[in-house]
Amino acid sequence: MTFHIGSQQGNINNVAGDQTIHGGQHGQFATTTDPRAMLGLLRSELDHLALPPEVASQVNTEVESLDAELASSSPDRTTMAQRLVRITRLVTAAGAAVTAGGTLAGALSSLAAWLGPIGDSVLRAIGQ
Fold it and tell me: Which residue in 114, 105, 43, 33 sits closest to 77, CA to CA?
């Protein structure tokens, strides 16, 4: 069987079999390659989560460290990848979903892509 799919916009799902979606689908497409803008998007997505105060504090510390790293003349991408993985693990352990296709995962994967091959650890942490 061959599918010829033209231009598509919005949420696109390719599944084998049936798919049921509860609660609707939401997506955000980021066209920036500016890591500071990507970090801003990540920060915004994290702010939407109802994290316990202790976890939120740890996540915010990691985000601030990412911000400081990006402000340096040559950001340490390995350190940044480690911080993004830590953020992912903290958020996941607190019960928030970080799934492929979600806006939080999108923000994380955008930064992971900017990091290059070092960002693969981030993609693995979010299941991509």
Answer: 114
Give CA separation, 73 vs 56, 60, 61, 84, in Å: 28, 22, 21, 20
Distances (CA, A) of 57 to 52, 54, 86: 9, 5, 13
> pLDDT digit string (tens) for 35-90?
999 999 999 999 988 899 999 999 999 999 999 999 999 999 999 999 999 999 99
Look at the alpha carbons of 64, 104, 125, 12 in this order and tell me if their dihedral is positive or negative: negative
Q: For 111-120, write each residue's pLDDT tens digit.
A: 999 999 999 9
Q: Determine contact, residues 100/127, Cβ cutoff 8 Å.
A: yes
Give how far Cα 26 sits from Cα of 63, 97, 102, 128, Å: 24, 14, 7, 18
25: CB partners within 8 A, 6+ apart: 11, 13
Q: For residues 125 and 81, give the distance between their C-alpha atoms in angstroms, rounded to a whole number.
A: 10
C-alpha span between 113 and 91 (Å, rounded): 20
Angle (nearest 5°) at CA 52 between 125 and 70? 50
